[in-house]
Specification:
heterodimer; A: 402 residues; alpha+beta; two-stranded antiparallel sheet; 12 strands; 56% helix; 19% strand; B: 227 residues; alpha/beta; Rossmann fold; 6-stranded mixed beta sheet; 4-stranded antiparallel beta sheet; 7 helices; 33% helix
Chain lengths: 402, 227
């Protein structure tokens, strides 16, 4: 009952000083709004990136050549992986559903009078399945075409847009680094990541790429698709063992290749993005702290201004605790008010960012609870010192205060 | 009702010890109307603070309604002030943003007394101010403000009402009205202790205690003048 009276008193004092209350709450409003909107932007960016990355398939192990080391100093990439390695893995590893050896390079494409620069990727027939590409038109090249190094190609949708523009590309001939290739298929669009557009590439048989275009004996990457995600670790171990054997690596020597599974990549990416979100939230949190200091400042002023009032209350029987509560309620009310408005403002800001800026934002319930809870805690924390100062005033001095 | 024995208050100001109250003895019975007089620096304010449980004595005994005050802690003193003492100050000391009724209610709220607003209204009625219950102090005259303060002082049915220069900020006519109100309350057996340096005001009390240099120099019954 008394607490309700104290609440009413606190509310009245805040209403009496409307502008002061608003300005004090403004610090919290800005703090909460920025925490919520920053986290929503960070979360949006994280999920968008993860979604796009997972389009490449999550049950993929990718093998890359290692680095040459001399006395523990990296001196360069080594060309350790061969097409035979890929074939061996394909034929001997259990629990896998596909292997795609790859070579790739940026090359010039030419069709009639149009040309463009794109990634030319030499792969095997199972690449489309392993890399999660579907065909929009035509077909992918088959084993026979790979074995005999045919000059056929499948183009990505960005390439299609860039050089074919409304022409049906199937059966047309394009030039890749000056050599003629027959277009036999078009992949369906996967959507671009900010740093990489998977649709901006063409696919040719790996053998053709090695012998006729790039002139290289080694391969640059092997993607292995697992039947089940749970088997990724076992498969990784098998592959490492095979490759160490085939490359004659002795016990105790380092691998001359890297094996990484895509879920690790996804995780590390997710973690990086999460760190980014925390960073944004943390910076916004600092403004919340500054808001809290604002509350403390104003409450100290308020306690000094109302010394006489405190003296009167004490003279007629208010206990320390009751004075403390009254001032604490005031500071918590300010932070409550600031938190409430801040939530609305934060949601509004993230809406605006996604509508105008085109960024995906996600306002999570956790971030709202976090920001609001934090702001109320700040009200208690920064309100406590002034309230305690009020509660400990000597009634005689307080009554005499002018 | 009040028993005071060898009550002393010594302040330490830097190196110096200042004796504000040098051991006084007296007792006050229920229903008395006592004026404490003396020039400034005589120790009457210190005595007032001690009697009002706003401060603790350096030594001596103060017993209020058989309760020993000198050993109490801050919150216990607050409770004694709330239940047993009513204050009337020279400068009224009302909360500026609260109405007359809310000001009067305040001791009841801190004392967690149910029906506070009704009791507060009755107290205002008693000082003849129930028609101004919803007004704030700034909308009231000086005399009216002091009436609100008196209503607040007696709303908790305290053992004593302590009035510190209650007419000091009022003109003589309004002051006389306030004194008449005190007389009325005293007739209804409210115990009153009035601190003043004005002889005309003190003359209206039934008993006058004169102080000088922290000591009581005279303690006499007084023939009350009709006012």
């Amino acid at each position: 009952m008394l607490i309700w009276v104290l609440f009413k008193m606190a509310l009245r004092s805040l209403v009496t000083h409307k502008l002061r209350t608003f300005l004090t709450a403004l610090g919290i409003i800005i703090g909460v709004a920025s925490v919520i909107s920053m986290i929503s932007i960070g979360e949006g960016a994280r999920l968008q990136t993860l979604n796009t990355i997972s389009k490449f398939g999550t049950n993929i192990i990718s093998i890359k050549p290692g680095q040459q080391k001399s006395r523990h100093v990296t001196t360069g990439k080594v060309d350790t992986l061969t097409l035979d390695d890929a074939n061996f893995i394909e034929n001997n590893t259990p629990l896998i559903t596909g292997v795609a050896a790859q070579v790739y390079r940026s090359s010039q494409l030419k069709f009639e009078n149009k040309n463009t620069n794109t990634t030319v990727r030499g792969t095997g027939p199972s690449y489309a399945r392993v890399a999660n590409f579907t065909l929009d038109r035509g077909r992918y090249f088959n084993d026979e075409e790979v074995r005999s190094a045919q000059r056929v190609c499948v183009v990505g949708s960005t390439v299609l847009k860039n050089i074919f523009e409304g022409i049906n590309p199937l059966g047309k001939t394009i030039k890749v680094d000056g050599k003629n290739f027959l277009v036999i298929g078009v992949t369906a669009s996967k959507g671009a990541l900010s740093w990489f557009d998977p649709d901006d590439q063409i696919f040719i048989p790996v053998t053709t790429a090695q012998k006729r275009v790039f002139g290289m004996k080694h391969i640059q990457s092997i993607d292995v698709q697992a039947a089940k995600i749970e088997d990724l670790e076992i498969i990784k171990e098998d592959i490492s063992r095979f490759l160490r054997q085939r490359h004659n690596i002795l016990e105790g020597q380092e691998d001359d290749f890297y094996v990484q599974n895509s879920s690790e990549f996804l995780n590390s990416w997710g973690n990086a993005a999460k760190t980014f979100t925390y960073l944004l939230g943390g910076i916004a949190g600092i403004s919340l702290m500054v808001g809290g200091i604002g509350i403390m400042n104003i409450m100290l002023v308020s306690v000094t201004e109302r010394t006489r009032e405190i003296g009167i209350r004490k003279a007629i029987g208010a206990k320390k605790k009751e004075i403390l509560q009254q001032f604490l309620i005031e500071s918590v009310l300010i932070s409550f008010l600031g938190g409430g408005i801040g939530i609305l403002l934060g949601i509004a800001i993230s809406r605006i960012v996604s509508n105008i800026g085109g960024w995906e934002t996600i306002v999570s319930t956790q971030s709202i609870i976090l920001a609001f809870g934090f702001s109320v805690m700040i009200g208690v924390f920064f309100g406590f010192y002034p309230a305690n100062k009020a509660a400990n005033l000597n009634p005689i001095d307080a009554l005499r205060y002018e | 009702m009040i028993e005071v024995e060898r009550l002393a208050k010594i302040y330490q100001i830097g190196e110096q010890k200042v004796t504000a109250l040098a051991g006084v003895d007296f007792s006050i019975d229920k229903g008395e109307f006592v004026a404490i007089m003396g020039p400034s620096g005589s120790g009457k304010s210190t005595l007032m603070n001690l009697l009002g449980c706003l401060d603790l004595p350096s030594s001596g005994v103060y017993r209020l309604e058989n309760l020993d005050i000198q050993g109490l802690k801050a919150d216990q003193l607050a409770e004694v002030r709330n239940r047993r003492i009513g204050f009337v100050f020279q400068n009224f000391n009302l909360l500026p943003r609260a109405t007359a009724q809310e000001n009067t209610e305040l001791p009841l709220l801190y004392g967690r007394v149910p029906n506070a607003s009704q009791i507060a209204l009755e107290a205002l009625e008693r000082v003849g101010l129930s028609h101004r219950a919803k007004h704030k102090p700034t909308e009231l005259s000086g005399g009216e403000r002091q009436r609100v303060a008196i209503a607040r002082a007696l709303v908790n049915r305290p053992a004593i009402i302590l009035a510190d220069e209650p007419t000091g900020n009022l003109d003589s006519i309004t002051g006389a009205e306030i004194m008449k109100l005190f007389h009325d309350l005293n007739r209804e057996s409210v115990t009153l202790i009035l601190v003043t340096h004005e002889p005309e005001i003190a003359q209206q009390a039934k008993r006058i205690i004169q102080m000088r240099d922290g000591k009581i120099v005279s303690d006499e019954m007084n023939e009350v003048m009709p006012c």
